[in-house]
Specification:
By secondary structure, the chain is α+β, with helices and mostly antiparallel strands. It folds into five domains: 4-128, Rossmann fold (3-Layer(aba) Sandwich), CATH 3.40.50; 137-185 and 448-552, Topoisomerase I, domain 2; 190-221 and 382-442, Distorted Sandwich (Topoisomerase I, domain 3); 251-376, Topoisomerase I, domain 4 (Orthogonal Bundle); 558-622, no CATH class. Helices cover 37% and strands 21% of the residues. It is built from 18 helices and 26 strands. The strands form seven sheets. Strands 8, 9, 10, 11, 14, 15, 16 and 17 form an eight-stranded antiparallel sheet that branches. A seven-stranded mixed sheet has the order 24-25-20-21-22-23-26. Strand 20 (558-564) and strand 21 (570-576) form a beta hairpin. The longest helix is centred in the first third of the chain and has 29 residues, at 130-158. The termini are far apart.
Length: 639
């Protein structure tokens, strides 16, 4: 058996290597592969479509890293400790191939970088899981097939060589565009809202003539209510309620909370979480703060439960300790429940203490994780809910307000909710109306997605996985298919045009249910219940038929628009040598248009509903022959 001093552990990042080496001390050398060392080639397809055999090559720039790895492992026992997801498993396989070491008895994983978890991992060495590796291969090959074979068609049609298509990316684009079409089609309706202010509290009109008020209040009702100076307390009812603590955070909920509460982009959240997991240099040394951050499991290890129970007893008392929680059903199609939820490595590293060790943004995200995890292990909160109903003398109109008082705060000690204490009223009491507020309101369209709400929608529909949410959104933004304004995601003209092309030529690529089913198929590969080659063959058979038709069919960009030319005719959106532009079919005048301009494409017609609000989106300069050529400077000037 190899001695400790002969052991080299290979991880993904230098920060992680530093943290683990500090934990293990003498006898272990920990080095980093710095992520993937091999991938499909950048400048050619790299997949044999006959047997789907991938051609993996050293990633440019990684030659020195591999050289250092080879030198470090000479004559040593090697343990591969890349991340515990399918990407990490694939990295371990690639490293073993490059270093020419066995696939058996070399793999260790851990969800937290602590002395106990690292030592346990070293005691439980396993083989590289080829089901996980095969699943990652299948995903990578599928993405290469879609991206590499469709993207050139987009470049040729739209004359923009930065465009791309993607298995998850294109389905996600459809989600955003479909929401935009709903907003565009939305026709607001006016309705009356009536609120009676009594003793400083607003009571909302909820029933009229025995029916629930649903934006259909008549003008005569409003006129009657305007004259009401007094109301009767017709009902006071009380009930006790319990609220269970929330689940600890997983990747998607962390991204959503960080977006809504901290204003962080999904990409920024994952970058900060990666660093908190791997460890950061602080004045107390190099410290890892949270467990692995790519997970869709809410499971909590027994060790973490014991640590948390001790902390809760010590800080809050026994009554705040949560009881046995009901076993949560694993989400359909998800297979990563062996992972833990995202939690702090050490609960005694409180947000107050962490704030003194971390920069502002790391501290904010850590506080989010710490509070949510602690609350998840605490007792339910108890409240007294009071409903008060006020009515007109004839009982035809009823106003309602609800109040809540905390009986026992439980987990709300950590995650407090708003409390609204009731006012002193009794049944049958007549009360003066301080102000009868009557306003005409309009119904509102659906909200545009934020990055956080888009992640929630992707998770609900089964599009993508924890490791793909952030890269998918980043790609949509970098391709200018989507732009972000005041935190909201707007699909662009080019986003709609690309989606329209894909829907007509590659319908399965943008079909949300098909994309979700494909994720489930890949999960079956991960569990060893399906061969990855079978998944690839099934997909490519249908895809190749669409690809052949798309290559053979001439696709012309020629859309009606609502943009009026100076002559009064509606201009058309067409494409030319320099990309897409507007052209008048009557007088021939042209106008350039930027692809990233927000627009809506519906039923073959392009609408520019915000062009007057967003100055500069349309280039007002006329497009003419030679406009794009650089003019030669001449000293001769006209008088």
């Amino acid at each position: 058996m190899s001695r400790k001093k002969d052991t080299v552990i290979i991880v993904e990042s230098p920060a992680k290597a530093k943290t683990i080496e500090r934990i293990l001390g003498k006898g272990y050398k920990v080095i980093a592969s710095q992520g993937h060392v091999r991938d499909l080639p950048r400048k050619k397809f790299g997949v044999d479509l006959g047997d789907f055999n991938p051609e993996f090559v050293i990633i440019p720039g990684k030659e020195k890293v591999i050289e250092n790895l080879k030198e470090a492992v000479k004559g040593k026992k090697v343990l591969l400790a890349s991340d515990l997801d399918r990407e990490g498993e694939a990295i371990a396989w690639h490293v073993s191939e490059v270093l020419n070491i066995p696939k058996n008895g070399v793999r260790i994983t851990f969800s937290a970088i602590t002395p106990k978890t690292i030592q346990e991992a070293i005691k439980n060495v396993r083989d590289i899981d080829m089901n996980l590796v095969s699943s990652q291969f299948a995903r990578r090959i599928l993405d290469r097939i879609v991206g590499y074979l469709i993207s050139p068609l987009l470049w040729r049609i739209f004359r923009i060589n930065t465009l791309s298509a993607g298995r998850v990316q294109s389905a996600t684009l459809k989600i955003i565009c479909e929401r935009e079409k709903k907003i565009f089609d939305f026709v607001p309706k006016e309705y009356w809202r009536v609120v009676a202010n009594v003793l400083g509290v607003d009571f909302e009109l909820v029933r009229a003539h025995g029916k629930k008020v649903d934006k259909d209040l008549k003008d005569k009702d409003v006129e009657f209510l305007k004259g009401q100076k007094e109301l009767l307390v017709s009902e006071i009812s009380e009930k006790r309620t319990k609220k269970n603590p929330p689940d600890p955070l997983i990747t998607s909920t962390m991204q959503q909370l960080a977006a809504s509460q901290l204003g962080f982009s999904v990409k920024k959240t994952m970058m900060l979480a990666q660093q908190l997991y791997e460890g950061l240099d602080t004045k107390e040394g190099h410290i890892a703060f949270i467990t692995y951050h790519r997970t869709d499991s809410t499971r909590v290890s027994d060790e973490a439960k014991e640590m948390t129970a001790g902390y809760i007893r010590e800080v809050f008392g026994e009554k705040y300790l949560g009881g046995k929680t009901k076993k949560r059903k694993a989400k359909k199609g998800k297979v990563q429940d062996a992972h833990e939820a995202i939690r702090p490595v050490d609960l005694y590293m409180t947000p107050e203490r962490a704030e003194k060790l971390l920069d502002k943004d790391h501290a904010k995200l850590y506080k989010l994780v710490w509070e949510r995890f602690l609350a998840s292990q605490m007792a339910p909160s108890e409240r007294k809910e009071t409903k008060v109903v006020l009515s007109t003398e004839d009982g035809e109109y009823e106003f309602e307000a609800k109040f809540t008082e905390i009986i026992f705060d439980g987990f709300e000690r950590v995650l407090p909710r708003e409390e609204k204490k009731p006012i002193d009223l009794r049944e049958k009491q007549k009360v003066d109306v301080d102000n009868m507020k009557v306003s005409k309101e309009k119904t509102k369209p659906p909200d545009r997605f934020t990055e956080g709400s888009l992640v929630k929608e992707m998770e609900k529909l089964g599009i993508g996985r924890p490791s793909t949410y952030a890269p998918t959104i980043s790609t949509l933004l970098s391709r200018k298919y989507v732009v972000k304004k005041k935190g909201r995601l707007y699909p662009t003209l080019i986003g709609f045009l690309v989606l329209d092309y894909l829907e007509k030529n590659f319908p399965e690529i943008v079909d949300i249910s098909f994309t979700a089913k494909m994720e489930q198929q890949l999960d079956l590969v991960e569990k060893g219940e399906k061969e990855h080659l079978e998944v690839l063959r099934e997909f490519f058979k249908r895809f190749n038929e669409d690809l052949k038709k798309a290559k053979e069919t001439f696709y012309k960009i020629d859309y009606d628009t609502d943009f009026k030319c100076e002559c009064g005719s509606e201009m058309r959106l067409v494409t030319g040598k320099f990309g897409i532009y507007l052209k008048c079919p009557k007088c021939g005048k042209t106008r350039s248009v930027r692809p990233e301009y927000t627009a809506v494409l519906k039923d073959g017609r392009v609408y520019f509903p915000w062009r007057r609000e967003d100055e500069g989106n349309l280039d007002e300069k006329k497009r003419s022959k030679g406009t794009h050529k650089r003019k030669r400077y001449s000293k001769k000037r006209s008088a």
